[in-house]
Design a protein that fits this description.
By secondary structure, this protein is mostly beta strands. 0% of the residues lie in helices and 48% in strands. It has no helices and 17 strands. The strands form 4 sheets. Strands 1, 2, 3, 7, 8, 10, 15, 16 and 17 form a 9-stranded antiparallel beta sheet that branches. It is globular and about 40 Å long.
Amino acid sequence: DCGADLSCTPTALYYNTLTWASVIPLQVADPFGRLAASGWGDSQLGTYQIAPTANSYAFSVDGDEGIIAVDAVNSSRRAYLPSTFSTDDVLIQYEFMVDELPVGGNVDISPMLRVDPADVGNTYYFPEVEVTPAGRVQLRLVLRSGGVETTSTGPVLVPDVVVVPGEYLRVYAQVRSNIIKVAVTQLDGTLPVNWGLTVISSALTAGRG
């Protein structure tokens, strides 16, 4: 989501590692060590699905990074894996960067958690990591139910984290039982003791594991 300004940037988002650590326990990672001109191709857990599929053109992999082209305001680009990881208790760690700071609105980067398997594209939680035009990071938790989005908590400013175009930040997002946590650190950071945002929601169904 680039806000409402037609001159909105950045033009792309870059991910160089996505890691899932399930409570099962099982851990998988996607280092994007492949090439894909449309979509994100295959990971250890299967083929990425793009929602809607018409947006596949905006996704690519260059052998080191998964890239999302941001070429329209007030639009969403979503990729997910058809596995149990989005419904289970899970810790997701990923690194992202923007090539430019946004203009006219925030750019939001969000993992999908507690996805309803009967309504994958429309019902799930997502802890939103918002990059502001001032180069700061805000966190908020949003529930998407039946295609309608409602902010549960936030925005909360992340202190001491500054967005520099071309430099990666690390995001941790965890869901366990009815608790969702999210934090953002500089790339040399470690798993946080104090999470940037913690939400206990009675609407969350218990995960497996």
